[in-house]
């Protein structure tokens, strides 16, 4: 069977792209999905032009229209991130992804909760709006066997539906 293409936050693949110059390699994902998947890594913060290491960031303002701000110097990177995201989402359309796994808690990639608040990261929010039907999940949730199994089934169904349309 052909491998499914999944987008994934690059830090989960072991790439040293986080604000502190480290990664968040997810051995569980590699062990459970590695044989089934072709990974397409994405790091919104690095790809939009922010360096490694870089100042930590947080989300502010309303959850509907969040702002991406550095913690110490209060630099607003929202417009830079949104401009980059628009172009990157067009590139990802060409990849024929079947799903995406976001890094939990990230101000750019968090899916359900960012820094203990019920928020979606700025890139994750834009991704979901662009790929409305594509299965997405966060790295923490996929540690649960049932959630992971359901996600994999959804990605296969999405790929099948996408290739027949």
Please provide a written account of the structure:
The chain has one domain. The model has no long low-confidence stretch (mean pLDDT 94). The longest helix has 20 residues, at 145-164. It has five helices and six strands, in the order βαβαββαβαβα. Helix content is 35%, strand content 16%. It has helices at residues 27-33, 44-47, 78-95, 122-130, 145-164; strands at residues 4-9, 37-42, 57-60, 67-70, 99-102, 136-138. The strands form two sheets. A four-stranded parallel sheet has the order 2-1-5-6. Strands 3-4 form a two-stranded antiparallel ribbon. With 165 residues, it is α/β, with parallel strands linked by helices.
Number of helices: 5
Tally the structural domains.
1
Structural category is alpha/beta
Largest sheet: 4 strands, parallel
From the alpha carbons, calculate the radius of gyration and give it in angstroms.
Answer: 15 Å
Spatial order of strands in the largest sheet: 2-1-5-6
Sheet-strand content, in percent, reads 15-25%
N-to-C SSE string, H for helix and E for strand: EHEHEEHEHEH
Distance between the termini: 20 Å
Shape: globular
Low-pLDDT stretches:
none
Can you give the helix content as a percent range? 25-40%
Q: Work out the number of β strands.
A: 6
Average pLDDT, rounded to a whole number, is 94
Keywords:
35% helix, 165 residues, two-stranded antiparallel sheet, alpha/beta, 4-stranded parallel sheet, 5 helices
Quick structural summary:
It is built from 5 helices and 6 strands.
Secondary structure: elements and pairs:
Elements lengths: L3 E6 L17 H7 L3 E6 L1 H4 L9 E4 L6 E4 L7 H18 L3 E4 L19 H9 L5 E3 L6 H20 L1
Parallel strand pairs: 1-2, 1-5, 5-6
Antiparallel strand pairs: 3-4
Helix pairs in contact: 3-4
